[in-house]
Every structure is written in C-alpha cells, then in structure tokens.
Specification:
209 residues, elongated
Length: 209
Amino acid sequence: MANRRARYLVAVPAAVLAAVLGVTPVLAATTWTVQPGGPVSMKSGRFILTDTSTGSKLTCLSSTLGGALKSGSGLPGTGIGSITTVHSIECPSPLGPTWILMARDLPWHLNAWSYTAMTGVVTGSLSHLQIAFSGPSCTAVIDGTSGTASDGTVKVRYTNSTGLLKLLTTGGNLHFYNVRGCAGLVITGDSATLSATFTVSPKQAITSP
C-alpha cells in the first residue's frame, strides 16, 4: 500500500501538486504574449546607484527611459523589448556640482524569464548595459565583465496589474571600472547595484503562455 502511494505521488503533475499544497507555480516560460506592445515610456522616482563594497550611494531624483515591446503571442522571452533612449540622469549633490549618469551603447535589451500566473508577475532582466558615471573629480564606467564589454545585467520584476517595472538589487552583474578620482567612494572592480521603480506607459500585459 505504501509503495502504491509513493508511485501515485511521483505521477502527480507538478501543477496539480502545487495546487494541492497551496504553492504558486513559477513557470520558466518559453513563449510569451504581450499586449498591446509597441512604443513605451518608463519614468521612475528615485534612482539609486550603490557601490556594495564601500556602501557609497548616489541618489538621483528621477529617470526616464523610452523604448518598445514586441506585440502578439508566441514571442521569445529574450529581447522581448528594448530600451532605445535614456535621458541623462542628473543627481544633485548637497556638496556642490551635479553628478551625471549617461547610458552608453544603446539599445538595452529587456528579457522575460519566468511568469507567476497567480500574481501576474514577470521576472526577467535588462541586459547589454553600460553607463558612464561622472561627478566632481570622479569618473567611472558601470558595466558587467569589463569597462568595454557592454554586458551589464540587472534583474527586473514587472507586475501586470500595476504596470510597474522594478530594478532589483540582486541577480545582476554590474561593477565599477576605469575609476578615476572619486576619493575611494567607488573603486574599480567593486560590485554595483541599481534600484528604481518605473511606471510603464501604456501599461502592458505580459503573460506566458
């Protein structure tokens, strides 16, 4: 009898088992549906750059991105959208001159990895990132594996019900490179994170399958 029960549990489909146990399945999706797609704008409130080794933080008041999402069904998650414009991000300093973050090597790529149907949440990434960083007596490049690779990645989460795209501070590969000056606030090779929440307009419905 015990053996039959064991064989039965092994045969239960994962989705059914998740429902029985009250677990929300997170699906590693292979195809996607996006509506309406097309041109989008994204605007955030505070945009924060952090050197995770020194603890230095640069807090910018806002940031604005522009781009487009593919439209329709049966779409691949890789390159499901692109960021083609990034307004220079100005970050006022109480000590004097403004600090500036400037996107390089656009477009950035928006990728979808997995989808949680119960919450309507998509997990994915922004990739192909490179950002120039400059301030008073301080310049640097923010990238992935080198200062010229343009392979920086930030993990993101998009919620269909709110139309909010959040940059997450875990799961990325950003580092500071080519640091000059900066008084030890940021150091070449240190890990970097970006934190911001963007309102996507028009709001998109991104689902899988």
